[in-house]
Amino acid sequence: MALSDVFLAPLGLAALLAAVPIVVLYLIRPDPERLELPTFRFLASEQRQQATSPLLERLSRSVLLLVQLVVVLLLAVGLASPYVPVSERATVEETVLVVDTSASMTTADGSGTRFDRAIAAAREEVTGTTSVVTTAGGGQVVLQRGPPSEVESTLDGLTATDGPGDLRSAVSQATALAGENARIVVLSDFAGDAWADTVTTARGRGLSVDLRQFDGGGSANVGIVERRFSGSEVTVSVKNYGDEPVTRTVSLGEGSAQVDLGAGDVATVTLPVPAGRSRVRLSPGDDFPVDDSVAVAAPEDPTVDVLVLTNDRNRYLTTALSVVDQVDLTVDSPPTTVDDGYDVIIYSNVDPGSLLAGNVEAGRDVVADGGGVAIQAQPEMPQKYGDLLLLAPEDVRAGSTIGQTRQTTLTRGIDFQPPDEYVGGSLKDGQALVELADGTPLIATADRNGGRLMYYGYIEDRSSFKYNYQYPVFWKRTVFSLADRAPLSALNYGTGERAQFDGDSVDGPDGAVAGPTVTLQRAGFYTSGERTVSAALLDERESDVAVETLDAREGVDGNLTREERRTVPRPLTEYAAVGALAAALAEIGYLGRRGDL
């Protein structure tokens, strides 16, 4: 056995050479002089035994020498740093817990959920200094180097989300957080394999990384994995992750459909969306309930009542609006009486002499009621529009180009073409979404007293935009925006996405959450004021909860053992130092007893 198998610094044994001068001094020390004392001659003298070697006899009689040699031996051993090999887990003082809080961890396995078992296992891994990282938000540090009591409180407060997690980023975050001799414990079901390279990287840094897998249940999951909106209908995709054929019923409101799915099959169902809050339900359910129900948010009044006031019937505009299912279109020509109840009024190619003051006042009433007004450019702009017109008109111009387009929900993805002729002028209020090269606004919007205004700068018969296939798309967006009716796709999110609200407090599935920007971690409905949105798990990979055990996998993640079994030296230097101190104290006590002190 080599010295390195026992000592971390074998060179320290060189201190044993200090024993040589000590022994030499004892050997060359002169014998004490004997004096005859007459007063003690009556004492019987004992016969002295003769040793084979007087030199060795002298050494053997010296207890003090033995004690000093022991002190030198123990000091030399301490300098050589003796150690015993122990499990690395027994010596670690800092631990970083990576807890998977993704939706798949809510899978039931007969004795609770995967997440429940992961939290119970995490409590057993707590050391003197412990950090906690979750998979939410790309690796969220919820506790950094806390004591055991604080770790217990943190683990008590953790809950699994209804959204996909990012285990890869969480492990990377833990690696960056861990100290030099820290241990990382990852508690997850290890769905997918994107996390494997980060574990390899952490171990390459010399960190110990233990993988604790929780994979029970979910072997026959069937779930909703996609949701698409078209007009007032929703199409959902249902996937069978099991190995056996199944039959499921998909229902929403009053509508329902039955689907037969073979192993690995995907089927789609299209159903009408009811007003307000509703849920697409998959029955019967299974071990993973999160993808068995999808929340759907829709306006309480999905129909937008639109009035187009025009004196030339503007067939391009009216045709574009008439094909939108949620639009109830009315076309009228001034002079006329405008009834109440419209959400949007559009003034297009109006004869200035025929426009009544009451027709304009009707627009102001709509804006005051939270609706919207759009005014289209024409060569002779009626002065009666007054404050409803966002443009200060000057003259009719020709030959300009598009100068700047602001990316908003109205303009995104639309190619606005330059008009042949347009009404030049400056903006009185609001902001220009599309601006011509000379600074004239082509599309402009403004908020006014709870309602909305828009200026549409294309003169219909002097531009080609009306022939563009995006023309109906623009006007559909416009009427929904002016009526403050977001399309269904804008009201329904996937879990893990972020939504913007007007208020600082948002009522979520688990109670109030801080706004105005909210990360939708739980599936369900979120409401602030009059705005309600939904969140649902729509992730095909996250719904694949029938994960394979790590030991059975092939590839990079299959080569990663669940728990590293590494040994590290546990130094015994302190024990040698204590022994040397005890021997030194014994030497002092012996000297005192002998009378030399």
From TrEMBL:
Domain spans labelled Aerotolerance regulator N-terminal: 6-82
Record bears the keyword Repeat: no
Species assigned in the record: Haloarcula nitratireducens
Domain VWFA: 95-190
Entry keywords, A to Z: Membrane, Transmembrane, Transmembrane helix
SUPFAM superfamilies: Class I glutamine amidotransferase-like, vWA-like
Record-annotated DUF7407 domain positions: 222-293
Domain DUF7408: 305-477
Domain DUF7406 as annotated: residue spans: 485-535
Record field: transmembrane: 6-28, 63-84
Gene3D superfamilies: 3.40.50.880, von Willebrand factor, type A domain (3.40.50.410)
Protein known as: BatA and WFA domain-containing protein
Domain of life: Archaea
A Pfam family per the record: DUF7407
Matching InterPro entries: Aerotolerance_reg_N, Class_I_gatase-like, Double_TM_dom, DUF7406, DUF7407, DUF7408, VWF_A, vWFA_dom_sf
